Amino acid sequence: MAETVGRTVEQVRALVGWVGTGRRLTQTGRVTLADARALLEVLDTGDRMDPVIGERTFKTKSSEELYHLTLLVEWAKAARLLRVAGGRLLPVKKNAKLVDHPDELRGALFAALPRIGPAVTVSGWLESLFSHEYGRGLRVLLHRLYTATAPVPLSDLYGVVWQAVSPLYVLDDLSPDRLRHLRATGDHDVQRVLKAMASLDIVLLTEDTAELTADGRAGTARMRGEPEPGDAVLRILVELADVDDPRVWRQLLVPADIRLDRLHPVLQDTMGWQNCHMHAFTIDGVQYGRSGGELGFRDERTATLAALLKPGDRFVYTYDFGDSWEHLITVEQFQTASAGLHHPHCVDGAGACPPEDCGGAPGYSDLKVILADPGHEEHHAMLVWLGLRSAREFAPERFAPDEVNARLLRLTAP
């Protein structure tokens, strides 16, 4: 499995230089065979033109059959270094400066990784489930590598990708042999993606394990939308209104430029809600939420915290318009992101999240009274509703910041 790494940046630089002012493509938008022959020497991709297997020569009919060459071209296009227009492969002039800055070029190629699925996952006659669900599979692959503190066995990486994509398909009718073959094609495509990442020096790849390099970890953090060290972050205090005994609150560090649509799942995971109801933000009398509905919310995707608020300002996040859980949020201060700290990050807090659909703050207050009184006529029914064997299992004061941060770490950028 181990192979030479760090070559893709230099190969892409050579490719862009070779394209020059433009190169003619075939009618199907591929590099011509004549140009492909020249590129194989220029780029040293390892592809074989007209390969000989045994005593047979298999004539190359299209440059599409040259896997590594095709991947480099598609990767350069995905990174917006090259484009296709008028049947020609052309440089993107505004990004030409990247070619002279290898670190920035590596970053651009890493950022383009989610857009090269069709080129990097080529499994043969039986396409893998990973190739069909490349975005989802790549996210879980990067997450597993990003959260690991040691090299990750390749078998684990194959497993997490399979577990992420296979539930989307009905596979019960497949024979054991066909199911094994389907999974093997997925594993092979995961290998291809890992090799592509290794070729950028963002993954250290051995026969049995993989781990992110420092550059890979930093690039993954950017892909997840996390701030880089020194970037602005906001410390905010989130308090659940009208709930006490105990009070429920959380203190968070979030990117200053976080959009409200991304703050929503952060608040869900931080508080412990299940994200099964509608929500809205109210800032200076304006309500932000999902656009296009009858409620007339301003689109939450267009608003960021830093643009709307300053330290000392307060706003309201409402969850579940029936139970009407209001969260009073105070912007406490601007800080700078620290190296090694994942964002969003829960700094402190107290109190467990109330159960969903318990009737809002008044219903939650009643629920706590009922569970505290074994003789109450609704005591047993409430235990059954909550799925508890005993009221001792009900712990409204419980709060574990490590569990919250583990949930926040699972959040990925869309």
Task: Give the arrangement of secondary structure elements.
Layout: H1 8-19, E1 23-24, H2 33-43, E2 52-53, E3 56-57, H3 67-78, E4 82-85, E5 88-91, H4 102-111, H5 117-120, H6 129-132, H7 134-147, E6 152-153, H8 154-165, H9 176-198, E7 203-205, E8 209-212, H10 214-223, E9 232-240, E10 249-255, H11 260-271, E11 279-283, E12 286-289, E13 298-299, H12 305-308, E14 314-319, E15 325-336, E16 345-350, H13 360-372, H14 379-386, H15 401-410
Parallel strand pairs: 12-13
Antiparallel strand pairs: 1-5, 2-3, 4-5, 6-8, 7-8, 9-10, 9-15, 10-16, 11-12, 11-14, 14-15
Helix pairs in contact: 1-3, 7-8, 8-9, 11-15
Whole-number mean pLDDT: 93
Helix and strand composition category: alpha+beta
How does the overall form come out from the CA principal axes? elongated
Biggest β-sheet strands, sense, barrel: 8 strands, mixed
The spatial strand order of the largest sheet comes to 13-12-11-14-15-9-10-16
Residue stretches low in confidence (pLDDT < 50, at least 5 long) are 1-5
> Which strand-content bin applies to the residues?
15-25%
Number of helices: 15
Number of strands: 16
| Rg over CA atoms | 26 Å
**CA(first)-CA(last) distance:** 31 Å
Helix content: 25-40%
